[in-house]
Amino acid sequence: MNIEKTIKDSLINFNGKVAIYYDDLKGNIIKINEKEKYNAASCIKIFILVELFNQIKNDKINRNLELIYLDKHHVNGSGVLQYLSKGIKLPILDVATLMMIISDNVATNMLIDFLGIENINNTIENIGCKDTKLYSKFKSVEDEVFSETTAYDYYLIWKKLNNYELFDKEITQEIIDIIKNQKYQEMVGDGIDKIYKEVDKPVVNYMVTKSGKYQSVRNDGGIVSTKYGNYIFVIFIKDFKDENYLNDEYVYNQGRKISNIIFNKFIRRENI
Fold first, then answer.
1. Cβ neighbours of residue 31 under 8 Å, at least 6 residues apart?
2. Which residues touch 257 (CB under 8 Å, ≥6 apart)?
3. Span 176-233, pLDDT tens digits
4. What phi, psi does 258 have (nearest 5°)?
5. In sequence order, which residues have a C-beta less than 8 Å from that of residue 190 and are 6 or more positions away?
6. Whose CA is closest to 222, among 237, 209, 204?
7. What's the pTM value of the predicted model, to 2 decimals?
């Protein structure tokens, strides 16, 4: 079975645009619309996390410092900090954890404000993600793009994290330990059957993924670690339509099906 053909066949009747990048880290790669720009939505948060640890590594900031939640950080959307009292102080690594595991938008704005958009974008460029850009903090508005990326760029940052190209093993493990507690598996994780994850001796060791959702954009991607090795899978979906207004289920089902195809092919250890 040709996995790329199977994936493309599954998209024939899908009403939306899909970009994919899959790498089994053994020479097998699938690329579909991987250079097309997408609204990054919350996927930009992995880049912000990398810049935080970049500044910690370079002794620009102390990992034990605290950030204060101010009026300028408030934004609607995902997360819990928007419902808490302004003026509270939180350790910066706790802020980063909230940003990653429950996709907290206020926490994201606190970090953007502290780290600096220019610094974040410089690190993005230094990583080699030429088509990724953070334009502003998150805002409580519609029809505005706060950041952009591509399936290739999103794959690249996960690959470099997986291969210890961004940090040493100690810092990389700290980052992985934060992200693997992610509460929103969306497409990549939810496409893998529970029997491979929720048993005494699972095939899946852990998943380190970050999804994003904004209007007609649903993104997901990251590292899937299994007892047979790791692979990286990114799927971005945009401009979808669903006459029954069941957008999330309609789109996520498509993404889960593709994730399932890829996972089952990987654990059979077959070439694509």
1. 20, 21, 151, 152
2. 10, 191
3. 999 999 888 889 999 999 999 988 889 999 999 999 998 889 999 999 999 999 999 9
4. -70, -40
5. 252, 256, 259
6. 209
7. 0.94
**Rounded Cα distance, 225 and 240, in Å:** 30
Of how many residues is the chain composed? 272
In this structure, what token pair is assigned to residue 7?
A: 């994936």
- Find the Cα–Cα–Cα–Cα dihedral 25, 132, 176, 81, rounded to 10°: -150
The answer to whether 55 and 115 are in contact (CB under 8 A) is yes
